[in-house]
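Chapter summary example.
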Amino acid sequence: MEKYDNLLVDFYELTMGQAYFNKGVHEKTAYFDLFFRRCPDGAGYVIANGVKKCAEFLSQFHFEKEDIDYLRSVGRFSEDFLKYLSKIKFTGDMWAVKDGSVVFPNEPMITIKAPLLEAQLVETALLTYFNHASLITTKANRIVQSANGRAVMEFGTRRAQGYSAAVDGAVYAVEAGAAGTACTCAGRDYGIKTLGTMAHSFVQSFDSEYEAFKAYAESFPDSCTLLVDTYNTLKSGIPNAIKVHNEVLKPMGKSLAGIRIDSGDLAYLSKEARRMFDEAGLKDAKICTSNSLDEYVIESLLSQGAPIDSFGVGENLITAKSNPVFGGVYKLVAMEDGGKIVPKIKISDNMDKIINPHFKKIVRYFDKNGMLIADVLYEHDEIVPSGKLTLKHPSKSWASKEISNYSTILLGQKMMENGEVITNLPSIADVKENIQENLKTLWPEAKRLLNPHTYQVNLSPKLEKTKNDLLKGLNQ
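The structure predicted for these 476 residues follows.
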């Protein structure tokens, strides 16, 4: 387990904590939901990830002496409060969806039940880990989906916002379906496949392009992929690659593995490259392209008939450049009073920011063919009805549909109890498999890059009444 910094806390959580402590409410049991309000990039779904990191963080949560000394130096906190913090650990429970689950806005990805102060202090860390992991995993999978079965390689290490973003992003990309990463330390630390060939500087450092290609082929005859756009892709790069195949590799009983094109009109150049290789008898030589690719560019290239075998994707993947902020939030939804769970609600003039209150569970409905119909939020202790069911649109009162002959699963699971992890945390392979299994349940229309079908998250009649009663009570 990696080392976590437990002062990954927004300062207001500590100042609120001091006030909770002063009023003696810091140990009251609270329920918080972590959820998001909209999918990035206008997508039809999000792939949840980062739950494992959240569980690991919670299981070791504590403050070191140096942390307390720093907080003392700030001059805002009482000695009694600092003494309490010096002994605090996470003692609560956590429910969460599995890493790799397909999820939708406004349903709880993680629910925390814990003493109020504990639940408040872990807010920032949980959001940091979940938001980044879900953002990059979702973006990477969109790119993988756009490649339509062709390999996608994560090439973004140098564009990532720091070390952790580079390493974690490489892992999330592989979980999302990437064939491997250029991030060598991610390969070392997590056992994922590392990939890469050469840069333009390698070609420039020799007296000629041919000499550079020859040197590389002699060093890596079994996997020789050459970067052909340093000078002129069609006039020198590809002819020199063919020459190296004939004069260096073929006498060794080897063949040119392929080329990479990193600039220019990739559709045109890849078509010409394919023609030139086929005419030279190199029908097995592969064509890889790179250079600011994303899901839209890849989809466009393939729609133009570009004969590209694989894609190297950098900054647009590792930073989710088109929509780099994942808007996960962490909101109080209930408190316990005398052993009774009392729902809480946050309202706003912005309808999107009115939360779904109470301690909840997510039930996912599938049709007879195993395709996803909808998710419904129920209060935690509701008995899920069977038989014919009417699903009402959450914001359009006139829109509803009846379903029958369906199956259900409980989407979330209890992962921690009394501060201890009570389930096996997933491996990279587990998350990758879960993503693929989840995607099989989505209709193709929901996986479109543009204007996808959007699944609605419905409220049970009981939860809807609870929400409306709270809204009425606050407006009286």
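To summarize the output: The two ends are 51 Å apart (CA to CA).
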